[in-house]
Amino acid sequence: MQSVEANVNTNSRPSELKITDIRVVNLKGVPFRTTIIRIDTNQGISGYGEIRDGGSETYALILKSRIIGENPCNVDKIFRKIKQFGHHARQAGGVCGIEMALMDLAGKVYGVPAYQLAGGKFRDRVLCYCDTPSEKSGRAMGKRLKERINQGFGFLKMDVGIGLLRDVEGTLVAPPGMLQTSEIMHPLTGIQVTDKGIDWLCQYVAEVREEIGGEVPLAVDHFGHIGVESCIRLGKALDQFSLAWYEDMIPWQLTDQWQRLAESVDTPVCTGEDIYLKEGFVPLFEKRAIAVAHPDLASSGGILETKKIGDMAQEHGIAMALHMAMSPVAALAAVHCAAATENFMVLENHSVDEIEQWSSLVDGLPVPLIENGHIVVPEGPGLGLTGINEEVLRDFVDPDRPGIFEPTTTWDNEYAHDRLWS
Length: 422
Fold this sequence. Notes:
- Helix content is 32%, strand content 16%.
- By secondary structure, it is an alpha/beta fold.
- The strands form 4 sheets. Strands 4, 5, 8, 9, 10, 11, 12, 13 and 15 form a 9-stranded mixed β-sheet that branches. Strands 1-2-3 form a 3-stranded antiparallel β-sheet.
- The chain starts with a helix and ends in a 29-residue tail after the last helix.
C-alpha cells in the first residue's frame, strides 16, 4: 500500500486538509492598485483570492491567525467566523479575498469548478462590458467605443457627469471649494447642473450614439457628487438615449432617494458595488429602488454570498450585473458566480487595452481571457487557474510595496476575543 501511495497524488485528503499560511503580493495597474492573496495548506495545495482595488493587505492578514488550522473546504463555516471583520466598500476586501481563495481551494480538492460548489451553472460564457476612460468630446468618445465594438464587445460603458463640464462656463452652480473635493457626500455638496450643462451632456451622448448606433447597450457612470434633484433632471433629459442604466448617481445608502430617482426616470438605475453582504441590499430590493443590482465580489462577500444576492434580487424582479476592476483572479471568481446566478446580466472589465498582458497574469487559461466580449467559464478545478505567472507578475508589482508571496509570520499570533455575544 505504501508503494502504491508513493506514486499517487494525495492532493487531496479533504478531511485532513488544514490551512497553514496566507501570503500576499501587491500590484498596481491591473488596472488599479490591488492585492492577490494565496492561502497555503498542509498538503501542498494553494488557493488564490484578491483584495478589492484600493484596499489594504492588512484587511486579509489580520485574519490569518483566525483561519490557520481550519479546513479550507469548510467555506461557509470560515466565512461566518470572519465576516464580522468586513464592512462596506474596500473594508470588506480581506473577508472577500479569503472566501475566493477558499472556493479555489475547495474546488481543487474535490476536482470541480467553483461554480459547481455554488449550485452549478446557467451559462457556458459570461458576457463582459468594457468600461472606457472619457474623451473630451462626444465624437471622440464615440469613435473610441466604436473600436470596442470592432474588438467584439457588445455591451459598453462610459462616464457622463460634471467632470466633463468643469471647463464649460455656465454649466455648474457650486459653493466655493465643493468642485475641488470628493470627500463630501452628494446631497451635502450643493452642486447643481444648469440647463446649459444638461444640454451639453445630452449633446455629448447624442454624438456617441451617432458613432456607435442606437442598438448596442451603453451604460453610464460617474455623474459626480450632485444631489438627487440634479440627478433627476439630468436623468430625464438622458432618457431619450435608451441607456442601459444610470450607475451610482447617489450613494447606495440613501434608499429613499434611490426610490425617488427610480420613480422619476425611465432608464434603469443601478448601484451596489460598495455594499457588503446581502443584508445591505435588502432595503433597495424591498422598495424596488433599483432595476440592476451591481455588487463587486471583492466587497459583497465573495462567490457564495454574491450568488445569494443575485437570487434575492431575482425574487424582486431585479437583474444583477457585476462590478470588477481588478486582476484575472477576481475576474475568474466573478465568472464562476455569474455562471451560477440565473439573473446575471453582464460583468465589468477595465483592462481592455492591456488584455494580453492582463490575461497572462494567470496560468492555465486562454490568452486573451476575453474573446468576442465574453469569458468562457473555466471547467478546471477551483477558479480554473493553475497558478500565477510570476514572470508577468513582476511587471505589475507595486514598487512601494514590493515582495512576492513573502512570509507573513508577523501575523501568526494575532489574538482577540471575537465573540459578539456574552
